[in-house]
Amino acid sequence: MATKILMVCLGNICRSPLAEGLLKSKLDKNEYYVTSAGTGHWHVGEKPDSRSIAVAKKNGLDITDQRGRQFKASDFEEFDHIFVMDTSNRDDVLALANSEEDRAKVQLILDEIFPGENVDVPDPYHGGDRGFDQVYEMLDKASDKLAERL
Ligand code: 4NP
Predict the structure, then answer these.
(1) Starting from the edge strand earliest in sequence, which strands make up the sheet with 81-84, in order?
(2) Whose CA is nearest to atom 10 of ligand 1?
(3) 3-149 has which CATH code?
């Protein structure tokens, strides 16, 4: 059965859709299922933010088929790995964990390149386009490492 991976941020429209698109593009679709969710409910059913769509497109990735969904406790049963974009997402996800096994599935995505340093992928929502380029670069590097390791 495919390994199931969930990317999580706050809104599920800026960072985690990019993380999903990037990791998907680096893994064999027959072996890995990758999707994303937000801890918040505001953007359920929506497409990714136009600025995330644009930075992905500029780099040859199409993320327009993604739709927002909210993280839920049963995701701990469904997914093998849960990668969170920042420490606040980690707190929100861990608050819904029921066991040590659940908690062990959760990792900050930038731990792949800065292990143990608690580095966040900054939320680009209220900033300019440059923030989306930076987020893309960080997630590209982290997902390269992840694709090698998984
Ligand atoms: P994301 O960015 O967590 O990277 O998707 C955000 C998008 C929307 C909101 C917050 C963060 N919001 O408050 O609506």
Answers:
(1) 32-38, 3-9, 81-84, 106-108
(2) 11
(3) 3.40.50.2300
